[in-house]
Fold each of these.
Amino acid sequence: MERVAVTGVGMVTSIGTGREEFWPSLLHGRSNVGPVESFDTRDYSVHNGAEVRNFDPERFVLKLDPYQVGRASQFAIAAARLALIDANIEIDRLDPHRVGVSMGTTSGEPREVERFDDNNVANTLEQVGSSFIRRYPCNLIAGNVAREFSFGGINVVIPTACAAGNFAIAHAFEVLRSGRADLMLAGGSDSFSRITYAGFARLGAVAPEICQPFDRHRKGMIPGEGAAVLVLEPLSKARARGVRVYAEVSGYGLSCDGHHMTAGDGEGAARAMSQALDNAGIKPDEVSYISAHGTGTPTNDRLETIAVKRVFGESAARIPISSIKSMLGHTMGAASAIEAAACALATLHDQIPPTINFSQRDPDCDLDYVPNLARDHRVHLTMNNAYAFGGNNASLIMKKCES
Amino acid sequence: MSRRVFITGIGLISSLGDSAAQLHAALCSERSGIARNQSFDIKGLTCQFAARVESFQAEKYLGSINLRPLNRSSRLASAAARLAINDSGWTPDALAQENVGLVLGTMFGSLRTISEFDQRILEAGPTYVSPLDFANTVISAAAGQAAIVHKLRGVNSTISTGPTSGLQAIAYASDLIRSGGAKALLAGGVEELCFQSFYNFDRAGLLCACNKSHCAIPFHPQRNGFVLGEGAALLMLEDEASISQRGAPVLAEIRGHASGFAPQTDDNDEAIEAIARTMQLALSDARVDADNIDCISASANGSIDWDRREAHAIAKVFDGHSGEVPVTAIKSLLGETLGAAGALQVASAVQAMGDGVLPGISGLTQLEHDLPLTHSTNCNQRIDADLTLVNSIGFDGQCCSLVIARYERTN
């Protein structure tokens, strides 16, 4: 079976667009959490979010009309364009029918349904117009990326909520391994959503100020938005092109708790990690960095810690594990795609981004969370964890590719 | 080391019955699931019809479990899952023990739940929304809820590719089994009918504008759009080892599939090329030629452009033989069930091969001028079919094709 290489990464985040901005921001522990601007939060119990500010779709959406596609599609197209440039892809030299797109999302294009609801409540439905069906369905995120670049290969959206990015990358990995495409754009995208914000606020899962994963006084997540896309291609083709290879995707595990929609039990998470290790054919102590799901909610971080210890045993204490959600907030379906891009960058640079806002250890969270400061560390194998509503768990493993 | 993928059970909930046999019988006797839409206010809209699953009672399939957390999509999917599990002979204990997973296609998830949750934010205020409802606003909610109901602890994935979601989910699951990533998976699709999707499809001008229930006829010269439907269909897919371990019956085999995309949906030639290429790739994946295909289940639903494009693509792939390969299309009776559609087509095709009868295209008294489908008719045809090609095509340019084989025990 074909080995699969990551040869490009692109992202739109609240702390930088493109890896030249994003990676230094991560290493410096930057964060742009602040009062939500997408909608009025006066009636909400919380007010902070991690939104992407000053995003100019016209810089990236060049073929399609940037204002005829939703914000999540704009993000996805921007991330895809940046990833293609990063991978040094000459689009004209690709067989467009052999290039596919696999994207994850939680909400698709929520602003379209929110606009519908605004009008429905105001009894002005006639103002919705005819565009909803051409703008709202979540599959359009992958569709719009393919339209922007004229790609005719497999085109899929996997909307498995907060684990969607990992699901989409895992699927692209399978598509390439089975020879169904020459190149895959894979990642995730979500735009800031009133529905998501209100829901997490109602669950009491949103922190009032900042996100402090694994800290004793952590108060919850900060909803965010963004996108990341990875260029995946057969390692043999990447070598033939002579391009830089960030890492090789070497395996993944997907599992379901089958227990509760919103309360994980840690067992499924451990099972996904173990499966990923088996699938990649590696032993737990070979992992050099774990990118945590680490939302900053009291329950997630405690259960994830327990699950990591169950899978990694004694070596758990020696493996650095950090949550970049401390900086980016929780970007929903984009989160694990952005984190996968961070894993690829960590592998290339042998540096690990920190968990910021960490001030006091929690007795229940006793691993090495890379508190506050980035670290130089030889990164050979990374594990990227993601968990979602529905008891969905996804762990992805990438490996340094020695030339 | 590619493994073979078998269908060992089928479960479905549709406007034409709750088993493949009932669906097939309804199609063959031209009973329609389409009726005047009375489930919500459609004043001022063009289309007056829908194919709703009337009198659906989830309790009938799911027993005394707490149904309150399950919205209509979750109930339809969970009921179809129950029927597929029963049909395949899995016991609940074995199902949980073996980490059987679920791959569910859906276009919208529950658009009704999403929209009503949002309206509650607007009308009552964000602090008065229900946490239970929020969990059901994610597009993957039905897959999650069905996993809880049936203790499905393996892969739990949701696939959204518009109206091709159901067939794409089956393709995705097939590859997981082929590569050894899973040994048994439920795969298929679900879609619920709701005001929000109906309204917006109507406003987009995609729905049938006639004033009679039997008018969204695939390939008919007077078609002008489709009728929206709903339902769920799931297949139990398994590899050989799992089947022999269980001593399970086999209904059919999934031989191959392919997916493609037409980026320019207003370009006829490009769309035809994408559909044809996808069908051709599915044949190659199944290691068969067009000559080996005995019948085709078309995606056609009454759309003006896409029905014509599919017909021309079929002619292209079957290069002169398209006159000899019978083509059926089941949406004139079942409606366009979006995420469920491709899975319902597979269920119907398996039953048609088993029974040796291909249902006619109901209402197709006349074929659009110049459409190269001379062997399509409104009459049922006797078939001795080993291989069926199933197409699923979306108005966004999504294409998926799948080859299924009748299972002979001597294989």
Note: Chain B has two domains: 5-252, 255-405.
Amino acid sequence: MPNSSHSVGVVSAQRAQFDTPLTFKSGAVLPRYELVYETYGALNSDKSNAILVCHALSGHHHVAGYYADDISKVGWWDTMIGPGKPVDTNKFFVIGLNNLGGCHGSTGPSSTNPETGKPYGASFPLVTVEDWVESQARLADLLGIKQFAAVMGGSLGGMQALQWSLSHPERVRHVLAIATAPRLTAQNIAFNDVARNAILTDPDFHGGNFYEHGVVPTRGLRLARMLGHITYLSDDAMADKFGRELLSGKLSYGYDIEFEIESYLRYQGDKFAAYFDANTYLLMTKALDYFDPAREYGDDLDKAFAAARANFLVLSFTTDWRFSPERSRAIVHSLLHNHLNVSYGEITSTHGHDSFLMQHTHYHEVMHAYLNNISREFTA
Amino acid sequence: MSAHHPVELAAARPDFAAIAEWIPQGASVLDLGCGDGSLLRYLKDTRKVRGYGVEIDDINIVACIQNGVNVIQGDLESGLSGFESDAFDFVLLSQTLQATRHTEPLMQEMLRVGHEGIVSFPNFGYWRGRLNVLLGNMPVSKDLPYQWYDTPNVHLCTLYDFETFCAEHHVHILERRVMTGNNEIRLLPNLLGSTAVYRFQRAT
């Protein structure tokens, strides 16, 4: 049984330098770049027990455990990964990385471009899910991993996991795609566009080159995050958590913060704007919008998955309206039509899209059971 | 795991062995209402089938994964629209028919998705059940373990009822096995058999 009290303990980040140019799907070329990553558990002798964890929009390489100098900095999927947890680090070697274009240490818009000595800013290429998978494959090469036992992720991370099965069918035995979609709906792209517009129209954005002006488009980032947060929660979860509670207990007939929900959203927005890079936010939302493996196959997702060889676990959450169960079922149906091994669970949860990050007994039991089967396929 | 050993499973669920006898090695199978995945697991172990189960219950989803079988969480009653026509050699409905609400459309869906269908169900014409009713109570037995007020079984039927249904709905019965426990019943099956297993296809 998963045990939430078990942590991988103190972890530290590592850096990998890549000097072979990476050509992006857009045609842009990045001559050299760095990826920052963490690993948990031990790689077995034939390197067959590795799991790659792909992060979502605002995620990074710090997936589990905590830092020696700051034990409050717990990894974003610590509930899922650790000794005795669903992703059992006594059995698996787990890799978390910060994606290219990120703002947590891997080369991204806020990194210094060695050719100009200035931050890349607006000149950093738009990265697609396919590009991320290529950069992740190079990291796997560096670590000597020919084939992952599993690639897993939620939301945008789930898209990367799916893409692994298409880009490198022979390099991934299992794909765990959680709270994700085979492509975004128009409504979903629309949310991303409003968030981007908040940033793009912030006077402090300076066309993406705000670094040299010594400012940050804080207002835009805040609004983008506030909007995002609304869509990650369910109506019910918000009602339960905040209802119509007033901070001061009475109406003030003004535009200051009155309702608890306003206070919460502004707090989340401020917290996020204080550390997240605006260009990274833009780039990540574009990667979400662009992901559409069926596009090259006349919008036929079945044909897109014809190349896949992996076994799949697909999970969705009942109150997730941003990446609804219906979107996960579309993935499942295409996998079925290709006679691939797939299991699908629709997890009853009140927490909307955020559910995939939360402690949830049944969700974790499903993950535990599936990963336990994977662990029987290799020897320590 | 010994609990899943094929021999033990067959002893506990005689309809498993009957179903397996009809399924050739390596067939593709869809098991509707697959429960904890025991039947699929049994067919995987004994017949090397490949396929999927469909199941609605959370606890059973975990059990299926633990049994190492593919399971799709969903409601049979909302249709099998995710499955392509003629996608499977066999579509199974083991001890589930009597608990389905929209039984007729489901039977048609089974034969759209599969070349052949197999169902097993408790025979409501079994003499012990008839005796119960005659004595004034709804039958409660090993095959029908529920009280009338908490039973999931909304469409119980007898062998005759099922065969009449098939004749009226373009379903062609290929084979029938009737059992009580592990014994095959050939004499007066609608009276002496507690469990029925049918193999059928679309009537041409």
Note: Chain B is about 35% helix and 25% strand.
